[in-house]
Design goal:
Length: about 350
Amino acid sequence: MPAIDFLRRRWVELAWFAFAIANLLAMIRWQRWETIPFHFIWVSLTLVYGFRVWRHAATALTLGFVVLSTGVLILIDAVRGTQEWGELFEVPLMSAMFLAMVWHARRRQEALGIVEGHAAQLESLLERHERFVHDASHELRTPLTIARVQLEVLRRTDSRHGTELDVTVDELGRMERIVERLLLLARADQPDFVELEELDLEHFLEDVFMRWSEVAPRRWRLGVLARGNLRADPEQLRIALDALLENAVKYSEPGEGIELCSRAAGSEVVIEVSDEGTGVPEDALGRIFERFARVDAARSRANGGVGLGLAIVDTIVKAHGGRATVRRRGRGTVFSLYLPGLTNGSRILGTRSLARLDS
């Protein structure tokens, strides 16, 4: 019913109006003490307005009602001699304080409106961003995959253009990797980018190492490993470590060493990938995790990189609440991932290591 809806929406104003009438009656009944209910009316009006912020017309009518009713009562008592004439100055003073409250409350309301508008725009932008990621995942991956499969079939049946087809297939594979990495970076701000779970860190790193030790002819070494459970997203962490190991292979030569190790540092674990490759120049250490940052553009292009691998590492580690660092060691490079969430990580696998040399 309309009356019930009105009462639900305006019960605060109705309660205040009843409170104000009661205090006006108190001003009439106890004339010598009327300044107390007088201040009750004005203070309660200011408090209520701070929460409700009425429209201009309602504000003007309410202010006029309070000014007229309290002012008339004090004027009558001053004429009768029960109040000092100076008490009349309380009315314009309280009115000025109330108007100051009105100004601040409306400024705050306008600011909230601006914030809500920006929030709505941001939400709309995030929705469009999510739709883009979803559409791009399908629209970009599918034709690249189909083209690569068709060219691989053609390469097996056409021996006359084998070299050209090999280059084309490699370039399509490179494009697929670039698309995957761009989409991964595009998803980095979404809430479900990482899905944390408990994983056995030692076994996890051993599995990553064994896969890579079969890939490239390097002097692979599984160094000291910290034991314990790490709360992390295994898929995303594997992508980050794959990017570091791929980078180590890319900038090292056959026979040079690559080591994977980890150590506990309180509730953190530090996972390190080191190599004996060409190293990183000092002037590039501060920007190596930036997107599309490449130490040597010509060399990176020759090896198939566009400067996204290390940016992905940094993004994944930050999504876990950690950080990634890089430093030079001799002529090689050491990448360190600092990740929180290690439990039972004080014991260390101290003597066991796995060395592998593929010629």
